[in-house]
Specification:
- The protein is an alpha/beta fold.
- The protein has a domain of 148 residues: FAD/NAD(P)-binding domain (3-Layer(bba) Sandwich), CATH 3.50.50.
- It contains 8 helices and 16 strands.
- It has a 6-stranded mixed sheet with strand order 6-5-14-15-16-13, with no helix packed on it. Strands 8-2-1-12 form a 4-stranded parallel sheet. A 3-stranded antiparallel sheet has the order 3-7-4.
- Helix 2 links the parallel strand 1 and strand 2.
Length: 252
């Protein structure tokens, strides 16, 4: 532990997991730094995230929950309907009485910005435009690693650099397995639509029809914006292939 307090922890990636880890370490007075390959203004997270009761508990422990509750949509049920608008399943998502915490939904970027703001308040540095390249050495004295053209040292290095993690390759040759499903989603205002019933927009709702499933969930505290999405089979692409596809209006 003395080594950790002396040399600190290096975190690769300033996403939700990397920033959450940094907040937890800062609470224990363990020095840490985050290295992020992208620039400070490159966050483009357009979808939301569900905070389950267990997730809310973790965020509460690191001081985040109270700061984002007012920006989050509180929902209690997840509903599944068939193509004829018949409710075929209802799942209780959250109950303070049973679990102590609710379930929330909010934009990922809203959550990420709040956690980064907290890191600034706690003087935890995030180095942007700092791409992790490779491990130089890994010994009992710590880890030396290259970021850009610089060599850095830490007691421990933690990879939070996403599904295409560079650091993961140092530990294993295994790569993420593609499930064969592609997701397309967008956001719509709730009020202009003549909904069959309020189940469609007052919580998480999935409609199982012949064309496939259509899922929807509010993204903001007052429920006025709804994420609507669907999934369909699509051939696997490499990282560049997905980026090209996502940028093509014709493909969509």
């Amino acid at each position: 532990m003395d080594k950790v307090h002396k040399s600190g922890v290096a975190i690769i990636g300033a996403g939700l997991s990397g920033t959450a880890l940094a907040l937890a370490l800062s609470q224990k007075s363990i020095p840490c730094q985050i290295y992020e390959a992208r620039s400070a203004d490159a966050d483009v997270l357009t979808s939301g995230v569900v905070l389950t009761p267990n997730g809310c508990r973790v965020l509460d422990e690191i001081g985040v929950l109270s700061r984002i509750e007012a920006k989050s949509f509180l929902f209690k049920q997840s509903i599944i309907k068939d193509g004829e608008d018949k409710t075929i399943a209802t799942t209780d998502v959250s109950s303070r009485d049973k679990k102590g915490y609710p379930a929330y939904r909010l934009y990922r970027l809203t959550l990420l910005k709040e956690m980064k703001k907290m890191l600034v308040e706690r003087n935890v540095p995030i180095h942007y435009d700092a791409k992790f390249e490779k491990i130089i050495s890994d010994t009992a004295d710590g880890v030396s690693f290259q970021v850009g053209n610089e060599v850095n040292h830490a007691a421990i290095i933690v990879g939070s650099d996403g599904i295409h993690s560079t650091l993961r390759r140092y530990l294993t040759d295994r790569a993420p397995a593609y499930t064969g499903l592609f997701c397309v989603y967008g956001h719509i205002p709730t009020s202009p639509i003549n909904w069959p019933d309020k189940d469609f927009y007052t919580g998480s709702c999935t409609v199982l029809g012949k064309p496939g499933s259509l899922f929807m969930v509010p993204e903001v505290a007052d429920g006025t914006t709804l994420m609507v999405g669907t999934q369909f089979p699509y051939p696997e692409q490499d990282r560049e292939g997905w980026q090209t596809y996502a940028a093509s209006q014709i493909a969509f």
